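User: Here's a chain of 231 residues. Predict its fold as tokens.
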Amino acid sequence: MAKRDIQDIKLVPNTRHSIVQLMVAIIGVFITIFGITMFNRYLLMQFSLGVRMLLMIVTQWSMMLVPIILVKINRDKFGDYWMITENIPKQIMIGIILALFMSLFLTIVPILLGFKEMVGSTSYSQPWQFIYEFVYVIIGVALAEEFVFRGYIFNKLLEIKNSRWFAIIMSSMLFGIFHIFNGNLLQVFMTAILGFLFCIFREKIKDCTLLSLVIAHGLYDGMITLWVAAL
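Assistant: Prediction complete.
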């Protein structure tokens, strides 16, 4: 057998190893999300406003802890999960454009059609509250969720079965299920649909990287609060 053939065989992922790592990641993230939910529900309000604002972001980052440990153990490159290329301004612009389109069709139009209660609610009235909301959802929620679901989990699913649609469907379903602590079955379904959209963006739009998805995801979430308050 040629030396090149031997090297190619070594590059084939160990499916069983990938399944084990994926299961560990899913269990770890699930436990972390449950812990974040319980912390926010029972302990968060005991801290001062400034500390609460910081903790809300930091606790979201903890969602990435188990996948990051697995990446280090497996000696993977973080760049393989983020897919970030050299043209960072273009990636950011793609994220902004996607967020604007999503906000128009998934937030503004439903509100104008009379479905405001289904879109969301807010008690915010001060500018600083809306500014913090964008900071929180972009560098807290979106950063963590995109790395976990469209980054680590998506790539592990591809290692297990070399099918983009398999990875898209399974990661989207997991994305929805992992939001069960924050809502009802309808929210789980809607979140899974959003996860599906983000996966399609990842796969079908040229130069759409995880950075683009973090921007799109975060801005879209932030604009929900903004439009609900304004319209």
